[in-house]
């Protein structure tokens, strides 16, 4: 693993080693994957304006998120079915986050259960990502289990009433390998990720979600969620200030700017493009996080300069898992932290508060000169 020195190295290696069904599921985006590319390109369009002579001999990457101190403003986004990447799955991922003292977010659709993850990584800062099922009793049980297991926030994903068309999964007719289970569920719900339809939309993922997720959700359902949980609620998948304002008015604690790793609607903006206007609209009222295409320390720096309090990534942790399980994710986190530390020091920032809005501009700023 020592020859893997950046996230891109981990990605290439994971592509070699993962079975096609899993690799394509993890890698792919919706449609022709224009937004998938833009999530990366948009970071490259931004330029960092460094400042010097500011005593950066020691640097402190730490910050707080929803009142909890963490070692760095980076966290692991929820990604489903992680045991396809490594037998340790979500438990290994959470252990790595615990080791680095960063946030770990567990997906509803995990192959390790809420309780297993809590037991394996008792001291990790854990958040639970919630999908709302047609069966509200089941949804409530998930929420209560997360509370009981010590999870610190509920991340309600709002961008997935049903799932985008991911052509790779359609072509592969994605199914969950038969030795794995969706560990938060029993019986049919634990194993039924198989294609039941034929033809164009015949991916097991679309079929599962179409059958079970509540596509009728509206804003008033946030009131219901607030009434049944003691945990702070974060809305994940927000891409417009209009929706961010509604969420803030409803009293949520955080807005997570995201296009779901470009897996829902192709040609939505890159998350980093959507971030500034959302920060402008509600950044003074709630914490703002972002994910989508974060692969390097410079990306973390840019997102913070544009107003994010915390930056998450999904696929890099999967590539870490695929290259050595817990140790692989630890290494990925170490790399991104080291890169971020390097950028901070080399731009005159010794704490995250020193990262100012005017330190990042679009490259067009320079063409006007
Ligand atoms: C394989 C995969 C599975 C995902 N599963 C979930 C999920 O279960 N719940 C959710 O809210 N988002 C899910 N997402 C979206 C991620 O939480 C996150 O928004 C996205 O991965 C960020 O982009 P990045 O992978 O470029 O870092 C998934 C993304 C991927 C790539
Ligand atoms: C079997 C249900 C599929 C859940 C998929 C999780 C997810 O959000 C994704 O983007 O994939």
From TrEMBL:
Residues 1-365 form the FMN hydroxy acid dehydrogenase domain. Its cofactor is FMN. Its EC number is 1.1.3.15. One of its GO terms (biological process) is fatty acid alpha-oxidation. One of its GO terms (molecular function) is FMN binding. Signal peptide: none annotated. One of its GO terms (cellular component) is peroxisomal matrix. CDD domains: alpha_hydroxyacid_oxid_FMN. FMN binds at residues 78-80, 107, 129, 157, 236, 258, 291-295, 314-315. Glyoxylate binds at residues 25, 131, 166, 260, 263. Keywords: Flavoprotein, FMN, Oxidoreductase. Pfam families: FMN_dh. The active site is at 260 (proton acceptor). SUPFAM superfamilies: FMN-linked oxidoreductases (SSF51395). It catalyses: 2-hydroxyoctanoate + O2 = 2-oxooctanoate + H2O2; a (2S)-2-hydroxycarboxylate + O2 = a 2-oxocarboxylate + H2O2. It is an enzyme of class 1 (oxidoreductase). PROSITE patterns: FMN_HYDROXY_ACID_DH_1 (PS00557), FMN_HYDROXY_ACID_DH_2 (PS51349). Belongs to the FMN-dependent alpha-hydroxy acid dehydrogenase family. This is (S)-2-hydroxy-acid oxidase. It comes from Agrilus planipennis (Emerald ash borer). The lineage of its organism: Eukaryota, Metazoa, Ecdysozoa, Arthropoda, Hexapoda.
């Amino acid at each position: 693993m020592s020859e893997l020195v950046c996230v891109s190295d981990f990605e290439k290696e994971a592509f070699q080693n993962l079975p096609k069904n899993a690799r394509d599921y993890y890698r792919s985006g919706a449609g022709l994957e224009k937004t998938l590319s833009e999530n990366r390109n948009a970071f490259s369009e931004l330029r960092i304006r460094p400042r010097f002579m500011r005593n950066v001999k020691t640097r402190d990457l730490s910050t707080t998120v929803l009142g909890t101190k963490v070692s760095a403003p980076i966290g692991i986004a929820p990604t489903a079915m992680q045991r396809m990447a490594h037998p340790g799955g979500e438990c290994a991922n959470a252990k790595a986050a615990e080791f680095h003292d960063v946030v770990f977010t567990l997906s509803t659709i995990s192959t390790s259960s809420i309780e297993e993850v809590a037991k394996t990584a008792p001291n990790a800062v854990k958040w639970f990502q919630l999908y709302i099922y047609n069966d509200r009793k089941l949804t409530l049980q998930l929420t209560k289990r997360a509370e009981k297991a010590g999870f610190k926030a509920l991340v309600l994903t709002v961008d997935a009433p049903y799932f985008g068309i991911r052509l790779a999964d359609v072509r592969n007719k994605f199914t969950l390998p038969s030795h794995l289970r969706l560990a938060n569920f029993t019986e049919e719900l634990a194993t039924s990720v198989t294609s039941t339809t034929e033809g164009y939309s015949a991916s097991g993922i679309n079929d599962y979600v179409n059958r079970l997720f509540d596509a009728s959700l509206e804003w008033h359902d946030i009131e219901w969620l607030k009434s049944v949980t003691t945990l702070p609620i974060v809305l994940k998948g927000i891409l417009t200030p209009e929706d961010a304002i509604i969420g803030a008015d409803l009293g949520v604690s955080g807005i997570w700017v995201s296009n779901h790793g470009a897996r829902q609607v192709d040609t939505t903006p890159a998350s980093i493009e959507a971030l500034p206007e959302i920060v402008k609209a509600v950044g003074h009222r709630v914490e703002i996080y972002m994910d989508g295409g974060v692969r390097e320390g410079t990306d973390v720096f840019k997102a913070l300069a544009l107003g994010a309090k915390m930056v998450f990534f999904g696929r890099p942790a999967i590539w870490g898992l695929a290259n050595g399980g817990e140790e692989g994710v630890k290494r990925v986190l170490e790399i991104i932290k080291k890169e971020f530390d390097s950028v901070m020091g080399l731009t005159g920032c010794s704490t995250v508060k020193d990262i100012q809005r005017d330190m990042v501009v679009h490259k067009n700023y320079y063409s006007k000169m």
